[in-house]
Amino acid sequence: MKRIFLTSVFLLVLCGAAWAEDGYVRIAINGTRVNLRPQPHAAGRVVAQMSTGDVFIAEEWPIVNQYDKSEWYRIVLAVDAETNAISVLSERDSRFRANMAFVNANFATASPLAEGDIEKILATPEGVGYSLDSIYGTWSYVHSTEGDAETPLYLYEFETSPPRLEIKKDNTMVFFGYERVSEGTLVQTGPCSYNFTDVKSKYEGYDYHKDTDDYLLYVPKSGLLRYTISDDVEVHHYFVYDAG
User: Fold this and answer.
1) If phi over 0 gives left and psi between -120 and 50 gives alpha, with beta otherwise, what is residue 193?
2) pTM, rounded to two decimals
3) Tens digit of each residue's pLDDT (9 = 90 or more) over 140-199
4) What share of the chain is helix, strand, coil (3-state, %, to 5)?
5) Would you say 46 and 126 are in contact if contact means Cβ atoms under 8 Å apart?
């Protein structure tokens, strides 16, 4: 994830966190020129293509694409198949600019971490925990959940126009969703959390302005930003920083 260093007091957060020692597996690619995607669905941009023999570290539980029921592993680190060295994705291949990618579970075999993997993971910048100095910038949608913020992990039907967030230096945010654009102000409520206030929206051509309990939470362990929409049932949209 790209770090953004600002001297401004706006959106300053220091949220370092170490990875847990479980919840991760080794992923071996099965196939030739298997597409790795920036989002957990088979559409849009391809981050890189990998083949049998390529090995990665991924989150243990795959994300389920609600649209087509496909399952996707979220890859977070690369493994050198010859030396077993573990590194961030961008060090393995320059095409990995966001240091994360998704692979369809049909083209990957998961196995437990090898002996010594935890120590190597903790030696990476992500493994020792990192701070995100600002959430200013553009964030791209990756998946959503309803109710429980953690599980299950589903991708909603946003294949045509996935949501995105634009967070500006002046402490304002724009949310681009399906047929809806919302603008408002972020008020920091904790080290990594923000309320989305004074929200004005345009939906299907109509303008409206209402109070909202929506909020954002940056999750250092995963590197994801969670935007929670608090209607009758809370919907949690997860975003990854878009490094361009």
Assistant:
1) beta
2) 0.63
3) 888 888 887 766 667 666 556 678 899 998 889 999 887 789 999 999 888 789 999 999
4) 5, 45, 50
5) no
Q: Kind and range of the H or E element at 241?
A: strand 234-241
* Torsion of the alpha carbons at 44, 111, 60 and 100, rounded to the nearest 10: -40
Q: Are strands 215-219 and 224-230 parallel, antiparallel or unpaired?
A: antiparallel
The two tokens of residue 41 are 């669905």
In sequence order, what DSSP letters do the residues of 170-224 get, joined into one string?
Answer: TSEEEEEETTEEEEEEEEE-SSSEEEEEEEEEEETTEEEEE----EEEEETTTTE
Cis peptide before 152 (omega within 30 of 0): yes
Q: Is 30 helix (H, G, I), strand (E, B) or coil?
A: coil
CATH of domain 137-241: 2.40.128
The boundaries of every CATH 2.40.128 domain in the chain are 137-241
What are the pLDDT digits (tens) for 14-38? Answer: 343 333 445 789 999 999 999 998 8
Letter string b/e over residues 115-133, b meaning 16 or more CB atoms within 10 A of that residue's CB: eebbebbeebebbeebebe
